[in-house]
């Protein structure tokens, strides 16, 4: 007997519709988060904890077994009747004890699956979440995602990480030294990343730049406990106002400060999250450090940037990408719309210059709203310098330029 399509006797969408009228948190298919705790970490960061509904827990924990350190989650926030979508870094790992986070008392909540983010109280949505939203407020959410993870190594070697990678992912060898560089609120995605790396046996160094004194550093107790637990973990906190904390006598990231870490930099995977100035300083510093033949140290860098860190292509200039950078003109085809336009800048800006509207959000490579599928052609990421392959893949139009004619599935 042939097995074909079997329609649902009762449609899940109908069940969700009825359930949402009985209780707004209930859903079989629609992930939602409910705000349960808000704690001040310091003047710059406030931690928010959420619990997931049935649909969220089923899709995240039952199927994906949680998330990777360094990933983010999207929240849909309604303010004055307008829907706003924002993405925030997940703090830590699903099974990581929350008592490690300064100021958060987990004894009041015994649930096993708690989602934590830490954000600055700035901007419309962040101010609402940190200052105005009442405990118990329910938000539509996405699922944990993002490529700022240990599984996205550029060194193309195998590792032992607890969560098995997919066939398209590559992971790190447990003997590989890892350097994490953060500035300001860029420290938040490092918690899960570093803990995951240490559990896998990596040699880990954290370099953190901030304007605040050591005693006010976010999650300081967390880093101290990691240091006590893992002898292969070292951290350096640079207060840019305190010369006693500087590496190699400079308040800024430099080639001398990288050398002062005494790491085999050519074999070290570097994860960085911070401002444009921090990222530009890192690229400049790595260019000044000799590398083996046919290799650049900047190729070891994986970027998650919370700012307009659009670094230009000329490695000697490190300028923000604009029309002064010479880029050859190519044609971008939008397959579904039967449209095309010429591009000698980022694909998003080129589309807008041609009066073609594409989905976008932050325009800085953070929110992922501009992400689409490339059918063919080669593009270059202007944040990392990475050149894509020619085939089908997902790209962000706001931070990629066309290196050849490109076909997008839009």
SSE layout and pairings?
Blueprint: H1 12-22, E1 32-40, E2 46-52, H2 54-64, E3 72-79, E4 82-89, E5 114-119, H3 124-132, E6 138-141, E7 177-183, H4 190-199, E8 203-210, H5 220-229, E9 233-239, H6 255-259, E10 269-273, H7 276-287, E11 301-303, E12 330-334, E13 339-343, H8 347-353, E14 371-376, E15 379-381, E16 393-396, E17 400-402, E18 406-408
What does this protein look like?
With 410 residues, the protein is of the alpha/beta class. The strands form four sheets. It has a six-stranded antiparallel β-sheet with strand order 4-3-6-1-2-5. It is globular and about 55 Å long. It starts with 11 loop residues before the first helix and ends with a strand.
Low-pLDDT ranges:
105-111, 156-170, 306-326
Q: How far apart lie the N and C ends?
A: 40 Å
Q: In what range is the share of β-strand residues?
A: 15-25%
| Assembly annotation | single chain
Radius of gyration: 22 Å
Number of strands: 18
Chain-averaged pLDDT? 79
Secondary-structure element series: HEEHEEEHEEHEHEHEHEEEHEEEEE
Shape from CA axes?
A: globular
Outline of this structure?
With 410 residues, the protein is of the alpha/beta class.
Which properties best describe this structure?
single chain, 410 residues, alpha/beta, six-stranded antiparallel β-sheet, five-stranded parallel β-sheet, 18 strands, 18% helix, globular
């Amino acid at each position: 007997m042939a097995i074909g399509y079997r329609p649902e006797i009762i449609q899940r969408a109908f069940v969700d519709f009825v359930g949402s009228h009985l209780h707004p948190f209930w859903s079989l298919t629609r992930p939602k988060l409910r705000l349960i705790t808000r704690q001040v970490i310091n003047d710059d960061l406030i931690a928010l904890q959420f619990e997931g509904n049935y649909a969220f827990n089923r899709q995240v924990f039952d199927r994906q077994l949680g998330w990777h350190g360094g990933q983010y989650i999207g929240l849909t926030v309604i303010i004055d009747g307008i829907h706003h979508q924002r993405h925030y870094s997940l703090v830590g790992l699903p099974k990581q004890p929350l008592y490690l986070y300064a100021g958060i008392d987990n004894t009041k909540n015994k649930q096993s699956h708690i989602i934590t983010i830490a954000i600055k109280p700035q901007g419309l949505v962040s101010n609402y979440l940190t200052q105005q939203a009442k405990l118990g407020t329910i938000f539509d959410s996405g699922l944990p995602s993002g490529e700022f993870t240990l599984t996205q190594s550029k060194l193309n070697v195998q590792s032992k990480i607890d969560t098995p990678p997919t066939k398209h992912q590559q992971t790190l060898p447990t003997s590989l030294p890892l350097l994490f560089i953060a500035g300001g609120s860029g420290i938040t995605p490092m918690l899960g990343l570093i803990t995951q790396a240490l559990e896998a046996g990596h040699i880990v160094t954290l370099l953190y730049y901030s304007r605040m004194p050591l005693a006010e550093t976010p999650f300081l107790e967390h880093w101290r406990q990691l240091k006590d637990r893992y002898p292969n973990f070292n951290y350096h906190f640079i207060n840019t106002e305190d010369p006693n904390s500087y590496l190699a006598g400079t308040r800024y990231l430099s080639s001398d400060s990288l050398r002062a870490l005494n790491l085999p930099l050519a074999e070290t995977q570097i994860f960085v999250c911070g401002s444009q100035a921090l990222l530009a300083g890192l690229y400049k510093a790595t260019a000044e450090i000799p590398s083996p033949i046919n290799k650049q140290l900047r190729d070891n860098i994986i970027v998650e940037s919370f700012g307009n860190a659009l670094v230009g292509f000329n490695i000697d200039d490190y300028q923000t990408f604009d029309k002064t950078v010479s880029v050859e003109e190519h044609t971008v085809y939008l397959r579904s719309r039967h449209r095309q336009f010429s591009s000698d800048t980022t694909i998003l800006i080129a589309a807008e210059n041609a009066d073609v509207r594409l989905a976008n959000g932050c325009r800085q490579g953070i929110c992922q709203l501009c992400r689409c599928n490339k059918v063919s052609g080669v593009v270059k990421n202007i944040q990392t310098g990475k050149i894509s392959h020619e085939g089908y893949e997902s790209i962000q139009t706001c931070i990629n330029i066309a290196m050849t004619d490109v076909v997008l599935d839009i």
